Known about the structure:
Strand order of the largest sheet of chain B: 3-4-2-5
Number of helices of chain B: 9
CATH topology of the largest domain in chain B: Multidrug efflux transporter AcrB transmembrane fold
Shape of chain A: elongated
Oligomer: heterodimer
Helix content of chain A: 40-55%
Strand content of chain A: 15-25%
Shape of chain B: elongated
CATH architecture of the largest domain in chain B: Up-down Bundle
CATH class of the largest domain in chain B: Mainly Alpha
Amino acid sequence: MLQFPLWKKIVIWGICALGILLASPNLQYTQVEQYNDATAALEAGAEATPELTAKAEQWPSFLPSSLVNLGLDLRGGAHLLAEVQLGEVYAARMDDLWPSVRDALREKRNEIGTIRRVDSPEDELHVRISKPEAISSAVTTIRALAQPVVSLTSAGQTDIEVSSNGADIIVRLSEAEKLATDQRTLEQTLEIIRRRVDEAGTREPTIQRQGTDRVLIQVPGIGSAEELKDLIGTTAKLTFHAVVGRTSDQNARVQSRQIMLPAEDEPGIYYIMEKTPVITGEQLVDAQAAFDQNNQAAVSFRLNPSGGRIFGEYTANNIGTPFAIVLDGGVVSAPTIRSHIPGGSGIITGQFSVEETAKLAIQLRAGALPAKVTYLEERTIGPELGQDSIDAGRIACIVAFAAVLIFMGLSYGTFGLFANVALIINVALIFGLLSAIGATLTLPGIAGIVLTIGMAVDANVLVFERIREELKSAKGPARAIELGYERAFSAIVDANITTLIAAVILFVMGSGPVRGFAITLGFGIVTSVFTAIWVTRLLISTWMQYRRPKTIEV
Amino acid sequence: MRLKLVPENTNINFFGITYITVGLSALAMVASVVLFLTMGLNYGIDFKGGTTIRTDSEVTVDVGAYRDALTPLNLGDISITEVTDPTRPDLNVAQIRIQAQDGAQAITNETIQAVKAALTEADSTITFPSVESVGPKVSGELVWTAVEAVVLAVLAVLFYIWLRFEWQFSVGAVLALIHDVTLTIGVFSLLQIKFDLAIIAALLTIVGYSLNDTVVVFDRVRENLRKFKTTPLQEVLNLSINETLSRTVMTSVTTLIALISLFVLGGDVIRGFVFAMIWGVLVGTYSSVFVASSVLLRLGVTRDKSKPDNTSGNQFANIDA
């Protein structure tokens, strides 16, 4: 077993060399990072300024240039966990459904009498008819409006459920449709958050879905979580409503299907308007910061063809009446329609500053968030604190490394040196692996590496102790070493698999920093078994062949 | 000359003091549970919700002034502690903890800005290297995930050892594990060190490490049981622990060397985490020598004395002697 065939030697040294090669860029972290940025910029078609070219030549292009990603706790940045209020979308869907329900029922007016939408829970649509005896016919009419659900898992199901209660018809989304809607809402939210964060141009933001209704947002390099929240901002939900009245009484009576919202530009004034909007922001195709005729900052917008048509018709029919422009639950302005506005473009005026119009235009362009998001968790780590942690971690690593190397050398002599070489290769392999898969290194991850440095020698210790024992029973050195490796093997495997199980569970169940720790710990276990079983053994066998010692001391 | 932590041939009777060790372990476990129930753990915001703000200043931290600045904001329970790091005496860092505010949200921008403004008023050189806030909704889930993770890890390992050894070994290993985790929670209750998500990671590492140690001893027991088929179990166990003692101590020492350097030099952010692991290595080593083997002795193992050469079980059994 001590003799290695040539191919095996080549494979073992090849893996070690590859590991060291992959790990090497991390020694020149800033340099390589600049090189990567510059190369990426040049490839993206940036102008080759001397500065950029110089940076692109800082690192030889034939060498690997993947780096270990530094986690937020090391680089500094902001982390947000947002929850999407999925229920809001159900309410919007019900509002969208109302016009077609109304039209369908109107056609049967003779049979079911007059119809009226009554107040209901947000995610339901309640319609009262004046002839309760015809309720089943009305229900059938509405059921005919149901569409099949568009998703793979719910074939054959329809999107709405219709039931009746006395003179009321109750319409709600089916479970299958709710699931499909949730899915769509979350995807849309992700996409819109991504667009808004990208506008800020920070490097490598992480925006990913978590669970059924959450979004994880991590942006390195941003000053604080507050800044990030401002950037993601409000939902930017824009709607145009027909105005019913204007009041300064906060407790004014509002009829069914009407809403009252505060005016943003006039404190204490409230507008009462129709709840169902004429136009929504979804029909917007473009928005730009602009100025109105009085040189006030404003936002100009353009609607899509169908939105433009509705807007044109509405303005033509309601000349002289005011209509309200509502943004995120506040009336920005309520101009009076002076003339028919064809072509579907217009301008939103209000008490805006130039910066606000620029931001609003971006948000309107990126699209409104389909639902409100709330922030469940937020973390900001300043870059200095991250740098402190890196420095402290680095020093701790070096000291731990040196101490373990000396200790192993003192305990096992020549064999200790072999273990030390293996330990160095081991750490290089961990960094190589982390860089190759683009894993993220966090502060607990550094702790994981330090722990690995301590524990990695374990497999070697097991073997060396065993060789000592075998030597006692007066076997020749070669035989003792061979037996030492063979007999320690089951202990090494069992011991490391149990630790690996813990690491894997940490990785699967953990989040954020805990995962970072699990990754380095898990990699450390795998590489330490590799180096202990193959690398030290190869070193020892090569040494034995050259020296051919009569006796060995372990 | 070699450095030897454990003499060449030890013949310590580890079961001679069984009553003391088992009694001590039982006592420590009971004490831990009592401490946990009476003093409780000092849960971090990961588990309890709330906000922690780390402040850094050019002048000495004045906890009283900070408190006076924050009291008018009516944020509920506020705790302010100065962070001390013996390796960095020039540090003027404080940790401010604000209880979870109403609602499921973490914290509003207005509150954060108000807090920052109030503190800047009290100390103009103050900066805020980190602000972390966790809403009550998430923190509840985090507790459960953490508990699940630990239980799952223990079960998975129990299963693996049962597969590779016999069920008695499995029980021994897991009892040793419960012993270690209980004692760690006890120490955290006693010293009131902040218990956060990272500590859960440390707990699971302790689980892994303690098992690592236990499994090595068990592996030797398994081997010796095959070798000495008629020797009483207690002697086999004693022999196995003595044979692996040198390795047990060596590995613990190298791991401790690494951890202690991290504890001293790694900065205050992860000190609690590293402390948990150091403690875990200590109790883990103790428990694999004393607790796991005592349980095994108590339960006994199924030994097949009829067949002289029983090599069934695994592929490593049949190696020349």
